[in-house]
Amino acid sequence: MKQLGAAIIGCGSIYPLHAQSVSEMEDVSLRLLVDRDRKKAEAAAAEYGAEAADDYRDILTREDIGVVHLCTPHHEHAGLAVELLAAGKHVVTEKPIAESIEAGERMVQAAAGSTAQLGVVLQNRYNDSSQTIRRIIDSGELGRLIGMKGIVTWHRDEAYYARSDWRGQWATEGGGVLINQAIHTLDLLQWFGGLVESVRGSITTDVLEGVIEVEDTAHAHFRFTSGATAVLYATNAYAVNSPVELEIVFEQGTLYQRRDCLYLYRGGKETLLCEPPLAITGAKSYWGTSHRLMIRDFYTHIREGKKFWLDGAEGIQSLRLVKQIYESSRSARV
């Protein structure tokens, strides 16, 4: 089988997950790592046996590179994706799809006019717990979905923002805890709940005021067209990075995700349904393992000529909810 050539643009904190995932596939060859900081690109390339570059534009005409991974700051996603898709390169971009709805829509339009595909990394949909929840919702075995709760309590300090000048700014990051850390949980809530009818919410900067422009804390309430509701609380102001919590309430039982394990509570009895797989190091990994699953699935769809399900149109849904929460918060202050 002919190998697919891949490139990664952006050699920051997230790129190793992409590089490792690509390196594990026998039918894919990681050929180029790109970063404006040439030293970063060279260090990454040396680790993975690839070429290094500080300019992505050579990719546009390289016939040996068919797939490009975007691990760049949020505000760079749209410009790169539009150009790469126009050149016929498949693009898989880290979340969020972009920093603004307008930028995200440009990416969706570019994919619609391209022979190549656009995929958005919302890897938590591949978690065993997420797949189990979705299966139970679709089967109706616990009756009607009534309500959901998502809680994200993580820690990001001044040093975190000082390491990257694009973070913490509306123009470049597009927001704070909602668009960066909590977007995965927000995406799951809307994937489970379906079409959203109304959104109310508010944002505050409880700890990092004067350090960042954006929010470090947020809460929101959603009503779905099905009649179900959901609440979300997210903060970067907690003392540590605590595991994400989910609660999914049905007519005939409740699902709980605690410490990355999924439980069913029904008839006064709690049953463990699934727990995350062990990482190679022996430590449980809530997001790393699913990165591999999502990326491998993207390449499988490319190989088979099938439309990838987590495309731009799907990926932009969680971004729309983020922006609606921001707008709701601003409106309430007027």
TrEMBL record:
Name of the molecule in the record: Gfo/Idh/MocA family protein
Gene3D superfamilies noted in UniProt: Dihydrodipicolinate Reductase, domain 2, NAD(P)-binding Rossmann-like Domain
Species for this entry: Paenibacillus terreus
PANTHER family: D-GLUCOSIDE 3-DEHYDROGENASE, UDP-N-ACETYL-2-AMINO-2-DEOXY-D-GLUCURONATE OXIDASE
InterPro entries, sorted: Gfo/Idh/MocA-like_OxRdtase_N (IPR000683), Gfo/Idh/MocA_Oxidoreductase (IPR052515), GFO_IDH_MocA-like_dom (IPR055170), NAD(P)-bd_dom_sf (IPR036291)
SUPFAM superfamilies tied to this protein: Glyceraldehyde-3-phosphate dehydrogenase-like, C-terminal domain, NAD(P)-binding Rossmann-fold domains
One Pfam family cited in the UniProt record for this chain: GFO_IDH_MocA_C3
Ranges where the Gfo/Idh/MocA-like oxidoreductase N-terminal domain occurs: 6-120
Taxonomic lineage of the native organism: Bacteria, Bacillati, Bacillota, Bacilli, Bacillales
All copies of domain GFO/IDH/MocA-like oxidoreductase, residue ranges: 131-255
